[in-house]
């Protein structure tokens, strides 16, 4: 059978999703847990690869197996063999034509910024701390210039393996609640470091160090060297993947919430 999983993890102590030699990765830990309960070497395919330090609330993955278990037992069996910073939220048997990666209609990320003078002992490694005041209205105006079907080469990491830098960003939404700023980005697919590089352009605009129009200038340059910094991985969360209704996959709470 083919089984899809909802995977949740705190990325702080993982070297990203993908298996790497002698490194602790999400895919590697999941593969070990699967082998313990099935005795099989499983090929695990994810909706999207996350970088070192990046978190996930609703990563989706699939694997094929000869083992026959109930959905509840997949969840309980895997979680009993996973580390504390990783968890399976649901399991669902899916048709043979399902792919966690290729069946996805879109993916959503949320970036969290703590915007206050003092750092946080509680939110360390979970939010990016920016002590200078940020103007979210300017950040939203700049974000609006980056939405659409564009060549996002200026927001692409040097080692990105995507075939094309052209992507369609459906939404970038900037919301403040107290000292917390949430930036939501939704697209069918993303380039390597794309969301973190988008945030790296929005922040200096929010600080007033760059004008709103700079976002469009960076986009038009199609050159990473003209962009901003790559923001810290700490504040980035992979929060959702949408699939056609025919697969009837569960949803999870998108905490940390957008207010």
Describe the structure.
- The protein is of the alpha+beta class and 259 residues long.
- The protein has 2 domains: 2-103, Alpha-Beta Plaits, CATH 3.30.70.580; 106-238, Alpha-Beta Plaits, CATH 3.30.70.660.
- The protein is built from 5 helices and 10 strands, in the order βαββαβββαβββααβ.
- Strands 1, 2, 3, 4, 5, 6, 7, 8, 9 and 10 form a 10-stranded mixed beta sheet that branches.
- The model has no long low-confidence stretch (mean pLDDT 94).
Sum this structure up briefly.
This protein has 259 residues and is an alpha+beta fold.
Highlighted features:
259 residues; alpha+beta; Alpha-Beta Plaits; 10-stranded mixed β-sheet; globular
Tertiary shape: globular
- Can you write the helix and strand succession as a string? EHEEHEEEHEEEHHE
Beta fraction of the residues? 25-35%
Number of helices: 5
CATH class of the largest domain: Alpha Beta
**Oligomer category:** single chain
